[in-house]
Amino acid sequence: MPGDYGQAAAISGVGMSFRGPRPRFQRASRRARPPVHWIVPAGVILAVALLVLVASAATRGRPAESASADGVVTAARHAARPPREVLAPRGPAPRVDRASAAPLPAVPARAYILVDEASGAVLAESGASLRLPPASVTKIATAVLLLELGRLDDTVTVDMDFDDLEPDSTVMGLARGDRYTFRDLLYGLMLPSGNDAALLIARAVSGDETRFVNTMNALAARLELNETHFTDPHGLGGPQHYTTARDLATLTRYAFTVPGFAEVVRETRWEAHGSKPIPMWNSNVFLYMYDGADGVKIGYTEEADRTLVASATRDGHRLIVVVLGDSYAATHAGDLLDWAWESACWPAAGGGCARVTSPE
Fold first, then answer.
1. What is the C-alpha separation between 151 and 144, in angstroms, rounded?
2. Does the active-site annotation cover 276?
3. 3-state secondary structure of 227
4. What is the DSSP string of 275-325?
5. Which SS3 state, helix, strand or coil, does residue 157 take?
6. Which of 82, 254, 279, 345 is most buried by its number of CB atoms within 10 A?
7. CB 11 within 8 A of CB 44
8. Among residues 119, 109, 89, 139, which one has the least CA distance to residue 248?
9. Is 119 in the active site?
10. Which one of 17, 129, 139, 283 is the catalytic residue?
11. Sign of the CA dihedral 202, 204, 210, 214?
12. For residue 291, how many other CB atoms are within 10 A of its CB?
């Protein structure tokens, strides 16, 4: 996104402990009853038909050289998981005693929300249902769909130019004729926030950008993100490209259930080995500024200002914080997390309520 690296440069010196290397930038009657093995519920038939349609759409127009039908069907089954299953609480919700807890930090963002990843419990929020432009955090949805519908070891040939991107647009560094795996494109999407990687992924997965955006909006509908609408895979979009802090938190909770997502968003460095080596550093400064940070994505446009979806894990508990429209998003995300670790406790197996003691 324009300014993603600018955010890294602008925030890297603000007030949190710095750790690690600084970046360089899913009844019949008894007589007539047939044998049990002939009974096929209509729902099963419908589900199979839907899976076949998803698999067919995933391979249509796809330039990847080694696509596997079995792999696509497996991905389609993963993508078809009902939201109530994947977003159901996977652990007890933390408790916050509002009477004894410290006051919430002042966060002058347009919107924010702080969520426990396992339970989905909301610990703090402000303006979380406001429709706002997400900028590059849009790429969380793009990454999820690549992980669900693509095969990371497939090789993709760059068969397009990126002349329509703004001169200061953040890119992975692709050129027509280059060959890279989907895995490299995924890292190029999420670490340097490559808008070129986002466009190529859309074309490679769905055949063209329009079809991929339709799939993004289908993902939003599947997860019941009722205040979200996408118009592109990178986040440069206009007035009809919007979401909310609450929807982004739900999307990110879902993303962490998709195999491979957590590994990518916590990585600080990756080198793509295709037509030419491309070394990449993660532009998410939050990873370097906050103890226990393990994701997720930053963004910036003039309309959106700074946007951030951040995650941190301590004592096995992951919290997700979304901050939208805040010039110091990373700092204020850290302030909210500090408050949560100090104020919340998680029900313990032997009874009582355990507080976080240290970062992992």
1. 12
2. no
3. coil
4. SSEEEEE---THHHHSTTEEEEEEEEETTTEEEEEEEEEETTEEEEEEEES
5. strand
6. 254
7. no
8. 139
9. no
10. 139
11. negative
12. 16
- 292 occurs within a structural domain: yes
pTM of the predicted protein model: 0.81
Q: Please check whether residue 190 is in contact with residue 183, taking contact to mean a CB–CB distance below 8 angstroms.
A: no
Map residue 213 onto helix, strand or coil. Answer: helix
Give the mean pLDDT per block of 10 residues along the chain (360 residues): 50 37 37 39 44 43 46 55 80 88 95 97 98 98 96 96 88 96 98 98 96 96 96 95 98 96 98 96 97 97 97 96 98 97 90 78
pLDDT digits (tens, 9 = 90+) for 154-201: 999 999 999 888 888 999 999 999 999 999 999 999 999 999 999 999
Give the residue from 358, 337, 340, 333 showing the smallest Cα distance to 14.
Answer: 333
Q: How many domains does the chain have?
A: 1
What CA–CA distances, in Å, run from 24 to 34, 267, 294, 324, 330? Answer: 69, 14, 19, 24, 17
**Catalytic residue flag (residue 29):** no
Domain assignment present for 74? yes
- Set 12, 17, 68, 136: catalytic member: 136
Q: Find the catalytic residue in 169, 193, 206, 283.
A: 193
Within 10 A of 226 (CB to CB), how many other CB atoms are there?
12
Domain range enclosing 121: 4-19+50-346
Chain centroid to CA 230: how far? 14
CA distance 325 to 301: 10
Question: Would residue 25 count as lying in a domain?
Answer: no
- CATH code: domain of residue 335: 3.40.710.10
Is 96 a domain residue?
yes
Q: What are the structure tokens assigned to 185, written together?
A: 């494109």
Name residue 280's amino acid. M
